[in-house]
Amino acid sequence: AAAAIRAGLRGTLFASLSRRQTSALARYVQSLEPVPSPWLENGVLSRAAERGEQIFFSRETGCAVCHRDATFAGGC
Questions:
Q1: R_g over Cα of the chain
Q2: Residue predicted with more confidence, 46 or 9
Q3: pTM (whole model) above 0.70
Q4: How confident is the model at residue 70 (pLDDT cuts 50, 70, 90)?
Q5: pLDDT tens-digit map of 22-40
Q6: What angle (nearest 5°) sits at the alpha carbon of residue 18, between those of residues 15 and 23?
Q7: Which of 21, 35, 41, 50 fits a disulfide with 17 by CB distance 3.0 to 4.6 angstroms?
Q8: CA gap 74, 12 in Å, rounded
Q9: Neighbouring-strand partners of residue 40
């Protein structure tokens, strides 16, 4: 987790933290409890989320062209 945080900060924010800071941040992130997705209803996408998915993958917006990986975090 610390290496991923370090790479993420360096790659997106162009910031560099000390190993001590990165380790502390990693411990904090690992301590967080996941929350249920507001876009799921009984384990499936809500209607609002389905509409958002259609917009995301539409030719008009082109979002999926740049954000291809499983996390949709990639950028143009």
A1: 17
A2: 46
A3: no
A4: low
A5: 888 888 988 999 888 888 8
A6: 105
A7: 21
A8: 11
A9: 45
**CB environment 28-66: b (16+ within 10 A), e (fewer):** eeeeeeeeeeeeeeeeeeeeeeeeeeeeeeeeeeeeeee
- Tokens at 5, concatenated: 């945080």
Please name the amino acid found at residue 71.
T
- Please report, as a single letter, which amino acid is at residue 43: G
| 45 bridge partner residues | 40
Q: Which two tokens stand for residue 31?
A: 């301590």
Average pLDDT, the chain: 83
Query: Cα separation of 49 and 24, whole Å?
Result: 34
Q: How far apart are CA 30 and CA 1, in angstroms?
A: 8
Containing H/E element for 45? Answer: strand 44-45
Mean pLDDT of 32-61: 89
